[in-house]
Design brief:
The chain is of the alpha/beta class. The chain has a domain of 51 residues. The chain has 22 helices and 16 strands. The strands form 2 sheets. Strands 1, 4, 5, 6, 7, 8, 9, 10, 11, 12, 13, 14, 15 and 16 form a 14-stranded parallel sheet that branches. A two-stranded antiparallel ribbon has the order 2-3. α5 crosses α6, α8 packs across α9 and α12 packs parallel to α13. The two termini are 51 Å apart.
């Protein structure tokens, strides 16, 4: 026995502490599953991470209901043990179904019942596991015909801080005789996914009155019957009592009735998300002195152009770190530069509609004004149509060294081999999105040695870039072929001057499909080995946003779509299905 101990001690892969360190540095599920099959030590360490769950990364969500049922049938003892590993429990199907009862409205439900809920003992293992208990519980869809009324008290968990549920469950919770503020000693964050044609506003308001929340999110999925203005008045009246509220996200079609002179005030509000509302919300902004995250998508049809008073209200939020503006049109670059100068702590600056058609050169002026004003910038997204010179990459690396996401989907980048050779690296940039990238003299660059030189310099400048910067290039014939093609096999050095491509950059509205610029780009992406993943930029942006929310306010805004399309809402970089 001593000899066996000494033999194991010499093998570091059998030491639990070292195994734990290895498991902590594995960031994809297939590798964790492989580790679980090594031996008992590796199995326990891997299962702890696999069953822990995640608030925002759907790759690491807890197993779907079908998988939990298989485990429950195979071994109830193993089921009970694995549930003790869970911190963030998600009860959801692998693929939700459409509720035919709600047609013509679209409502997603779960048709697979959870077997453990048939027995009170195992329902307790699932929803109130022993040990440290659950930190969060998410049930995004109604589980049809599940026997919840037998155990309504299990939804009231003493350890849960974050609860995200379909609106159906509000009625079950408030029907419990134990519903008092003492029933939710730990609950600080509540997300409701409003579904179905029956709006359960009475039950929701009763639930709100029994909580002391710091975080509230209400999502009304598209395709469902929306809340009425009367509903939102009632909801805002209930929310007004939540004086400790730090995060309010109203992702509904009618979330902004006129607030009147008295208005609404949440003194500790740090994050405000409004999908559709009235202009009155802008008037309230100066009152939110602690506001750090502001997302405004649609503030009524009367706001078509952004005036000076709107700019002043937004600029008054001096502590902003995240700004999403997707309403109206900005026609003056100085308006956006003013916001940036008044909010120097911004880490994300996203503006959806910028109209510089009268003078496209204003796009370059906008970037030159924004970059020096935002030294902490990590995420820049601008819906502006202009041609960006490659020299601006140096301004980005100098002024915004933390930049992780550069999203300019309407912008064209004009660059040359000489320019990228002189540019310093953008060390943190993981996602870059342009409408098109035009390299000078693309036919000349198709020579094998030139192409390799461009690829080498590209990797040096963008060492962490993970995907094709021009997603439209994925549809090219060149990207579908396995080989690079004959264009770079031969030597084009002998081409006459008449055959060389002009170095003149195409116009903003020119379709470059099958041009030399287009063909060269697609060959460059293949040499660089970028994955053919149309979703990659969306994944990176989602994870960046939700990770930041967890960092700043402890809990993320997770859309209902994350549970029906988990691949789009995770760290996985798999190819499209």
């Amino acid at each position: 026995m001593v000899a066996r101990f000494e033999r194991n001690a010499r093998n570091p892969l059998l030491i639990p502490e070292i195994v734990g360190l290895v498991i902590n540095n594995i960031h994809n599920v297939p590798d964790l599953l492989s580790c679980a099959g090594v031996n008992t030590i590796w199995n326990v360490a891997a299962l702890k991470k696999l069953y822990k769950g995640s608030l925002n990364d759907m790759q690491f969500r807890t197993p779907d209901i079908g998988s939990l049922n298989c485990l429950f049938v195979a071994s109830r003892k193993q089921f009970a043990r694995n549930m003790t590993f869970v911190k963030h429990l998600l009860l959801s199907p692998e693929i939700p179904a459409i509720d035919e009862v709600e047609v013509p409205h679209t409502r997603l439900v779960c048709l697979e019942k959870c077997r453990a809920m048939r027995h009170r003992q195992y329902a307790e293992y699932l929803l109130q596991p022993r040990g440290r208990g659950l930190s969060s519980l998410t049930i995004p869809f109604e589980i049809k015909d599940q026997d919840w009324p037998l155990f309504p008290d299990f939804l009231i968990n003493q350890t849960i801080e974050f609860l995200a549920i379909d609106s159906y469950y509000c009625k079950l919770i408030v029907s419990s005789q134990e519903l008092t503020k003492a029933s939710f000693p730990s609950l600080k964050a509540l997300t409701i996914y409003q579904s179905g044609s029956r709006r359960q506003m009475d039950e929701l308001c009763r639930l709100l009155r029994s909580c002391d929340l710091q975080f509230f999110c209400l999502e009304e999925p598209s395709g469902t019957e929306g809340l009425t203005q009367f509903d939102t008045v009632e909801l805002l009246s209930c929310l007004q009592q939540q004086q400790n509220l730090k995060v309010m996200a109203l992702n509904v079609r009618h979330c902004g009735p006129r607030l009147g002179k008295q208005g609404i005030s949440w003194p500790n509000l740090k994050a405000l998300y409004i999908r559709e509302g009235e202009e009155d919300w802008l008037d309230q902004l100066p009152e939110f002195e602690k506001l750090q995250i502001l997302s405004l998508e649609n503030l009524g049809p009367e706001i078509r152009f952004i005036d000076h008073s709107i700019i002043e209200n937004i600029a008054s939020c001096r502590h902003l770190q995240v700004l999403n503006l997707h309403f109206g049109e900005f026609c003056d670059e100085e308006e956006l530069i003013q916001i940036a100068r008044c909010c120097p702590l911004l880490r994300k600056f996203s503006v959806g509609c910028i109209d510089f058609r009268a003078d496209p050169t204003l796009g370059e002026d906008l970037l030159l004004g924004l970059l020096p004003a935002l030294p902490h910038l990590e995420f820049l997204a601008l819906g502006v149509k202009f041609q960006m010179p490659g020299a601006l990459l140096q301004d980005i690396s100098r002024h915004c060294p933390r930049l992780t996401v550069l999203d300019l989907p309407m912008t064209q980048l004009c660059i040359s081999l000489a320019v990228i050779t002189e540019r310093p690296p953008l060390w943190r940039l993981e996602s870059m999105h342009f409408a098109r990238i035009y390299f000078e003299n693309p036919r000349h660059l198709m020579q094998r040695d030139k192409l390799q030189s461009v690829a080498t310099e590209w990797r040096r400048i963008f060492p962490k870039l993970r995907g094709i910067p021009c997603p439209g290039d994925l549809y090219s014939r060149s990207m579908q072929e396995d080989e690079l093609g004959e264009e770079i096999q031969g030597d084009s050095a002998g081409l006459s001057a008449d055959e060389e491509m002009s170095s003149t950059v195409p116009s903003l509205d020119w379709d470059d499909y099958d041009s030399d610029w287009f063909i060269f780009r697609t060959k460059l992406w293949k040499v660089l080995g970028y994955r053919k993943d149309l979703l990659l930029h969306d994944k990176i942006q989602y994870m960046w946003q939700t990770d930041l929310e967890i960092e700043m306010v402890r809990w993320p805004i997770v859309p209902l779509a994350a549970f029906s399309d988990p691949d789009l809402h995770s760290t996985t970089t798999s190819c499209p299905r």
